[in-house]
């Protein structure tokens, strides 16, 4: 090997590699701090040294996120010593069977009942339900079994903080990483390092504190500070490029929020440019007051036709799937079919509120997010949205501003989260 240990790892990573492992080994801290890289390196060594026929588990919020964050990197680290199939949900690492699972809700714990494991690796632990984590601990029954996990910080009241980090009654080792710990990244790509730090700083508040400083802190104040402070950076009169040419969108997606509690239904039309470079809010309709289902369907078709006439397509539609939403979406799809409209309304992929907000914040920070001036409801929502002062990563929803507009917009783009965040280096776009 041409590089020595000091060239491959930063001092914090070296300390972790040389330390004695505990039953629970948690690496927490900022993005791009090197915690995933070094945790996978130690995980591979741990698996290789365990008895023959031992079985292991690797898990994340979804298998897709696990693959994106960990499986490819693990393969880069050990080469042919690791192979996997996400369709079969299984891999082989140094001859040991590795089960692969997603854990995106409380019901996921049933997936690992009955397993007998010699070790487990968890990606993004704060995204995992406590019920799954609790079941996982009970499965680590082989002598010498250990858990390795990584996470970005969350709220100080999150179960990971309370049940692991602050819990002195369990055998655990917690390692805290900051963005500045990644000396290798700074040395090898200083421009990217500085750009990423600046992006999160421009996003402000909770994102900079958690994702750069590695702090477990409360969400507070205005959510979309960058937009609220300078809306003219992001508001446009027409959907045209820098040369004044009409944009030909790759995707035109409509988000629907039925707003049952306030009697408001809102549609948001969003355009996504080729290569998932930019996101544009193109038009909106907010139906104030009570509307019958048939009236909602008629208004939606009017909106759909306006968008198709203006932008030549509507490729996707995602709607709130709550109890009322399921009924209305079923009726809307039947209405569209009866009127020969080639569109299928799908249940939205909501994600966590922090994930949804993060996506918009990232797009604003990278100057990839634009809104047409006619979309006054959404503009007003961005300018007035605040965190719930209880500090549990919730957007305040007490009727002081139009949350439904934000929800509908987020439904329209969140299914494309992975593609929109594939590379957060602005020089890539």
Biggest beta-sheet profile:
8 strands, mixed
Order of adjacent strands in the largest pleated sheet: 3-4-5-2-6-7-1-8
Enumerate the spans where pLDDT stays under 50 for 5 or more consecutive residues: 424-429
Can you name the CATH architecture of the largest domain? Answer: 2-Layer Sandwich
- The CATH topology of the largest domain is Nucleotidyltransferase, domain 5
Percent of sequence in beta strands: 15-25%
Structural class: alpha/beta
Mean pLDDT: 91
- Provide a count of the helices: 16
- Tell me, what is the CATH class of the largest domain? Alpha Beta
Helical content (DSSP H or I, runs of 4+): 25-40%
Overall geometric form: globular
Structure, explained:
It contains 16 helices and 15 strands. The longest helix is centred in the last third of the chain and has 19 residues, at 293-311. With 429 residues, it is an alpha/beta fold. The protein has 2 domains: 5-186, 3-Layer(aba) Sandwich (Rossmann fold), CATH 3.40.50; 225-424, Nucleotidyltransferase, domain 5 (2-Layer Sandwich). Helix 12 links the parallel strand 13 and strand 14 (346-347). Helix content is 38%, strand content 18%. An 8-stranded mixed β-sheet has the order 3-4-5-2-6-7-1-8, covered by helices on one side. A 7-stranded mixed β-sheet has the order 9-15-12-11-10-13-14, with helices on both faces. The chain has helices at residues 5-8, 11-18, 35-49, 63-78, 130-139, 159-165, 183-188, 190-203, 205-211, 225-229, 293-311, 323-338, 353-365, 376-384, 403-413, 417-420, and strands at residues 24-29, 55-60, 82-85, 90-93, 96-102, 119-122, 146-151, 172-177, 235-236, 251-257, 265-272, 279-287, 316-319, 346-347, 369-372.
């Amino acid at each position: 090997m041409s590089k020595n240990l000091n060239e491959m790892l930063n001092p914090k990573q070296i300390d972790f590699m040389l330390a004695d492992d505990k039953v629970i080994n948690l690496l927490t801290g900022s993005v791009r701090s090197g915690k995933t890289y070094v945790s996978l390196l130690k995980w591979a060594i741990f698996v290789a040294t365990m008895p023959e026929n031992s079985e292991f588990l690797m898990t994340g919020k979804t298998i897709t996120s696990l693959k994106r964050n960990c499986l490819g990197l693990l393969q880069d680290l050990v080469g042919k010593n690791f192979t996997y199939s996400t369709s079969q949900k299984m891999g082989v690492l140094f001859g040991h069977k590795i089960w692969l699972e997603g854990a995106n809700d409380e019901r996921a714990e049933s997936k690992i009942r009955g397993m007998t494991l010699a070790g487990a690796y968890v990606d993004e632990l704060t995204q995992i339900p406590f019920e799954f984590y609790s079941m996982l601990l009970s499965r680590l029954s082989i002598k010498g079994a250990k858990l390795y996990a990584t996470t970005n910080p969350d709220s100080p009241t999150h179960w990971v903080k309370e049940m692991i980090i602050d819990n002195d009654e369990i055998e655990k080792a917690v390692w805290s990483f900051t963005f500045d710990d990644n000396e290798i990244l700074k040395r090898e790509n200083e421009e990217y390092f500085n750009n990423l730090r600046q992006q999160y700083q421009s996003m402000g508040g909770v994102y900079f504190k958690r994702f750069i400083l590695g702090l477990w802190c409360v969400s507070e104040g205005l959510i979309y500070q960058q937009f609220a402070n300078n809306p003219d950076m992001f508001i446009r009169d027409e959907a045209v490029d820098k040369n004044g040419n009409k944009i030909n969108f790759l995707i035109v997606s409509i988000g629907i929020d039925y707003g049952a509690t306030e009697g408001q239904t809102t549609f948001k039309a969003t355009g996504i440019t080729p290569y998932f470079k930019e996101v544009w809010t193109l038009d909106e309709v907010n139906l104030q007051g009570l509307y019958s289902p048939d009236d909602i369907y008629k208004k939606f078709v009017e909106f759909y036709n306006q968008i198709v006439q203006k932008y030549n397509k509507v490729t996707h539609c995602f709607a709130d799937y709550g109890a009322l939403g399921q009924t209305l979406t079923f009726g809307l799809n039947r209405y569209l079919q009866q009127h020969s409209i080639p569109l299928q309304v799908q249940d939205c992929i909501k994600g966590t509120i922090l994930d949804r907000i993060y996506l918009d914040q990232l797009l604003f920070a990278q100057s990839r997010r634009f809104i047409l001036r006619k979309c006054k409801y959404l503009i007003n929502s961005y300018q007035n949205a605040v965190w719930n002062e209880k500090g549990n990563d919730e957007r305040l929803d007490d009727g002081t501003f139009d949350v439904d507009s934000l929800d509908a917009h987020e439904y329209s783009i969140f299914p494309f989260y992975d593609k929109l965040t594939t590379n957060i280096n602005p020089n890539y776009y």
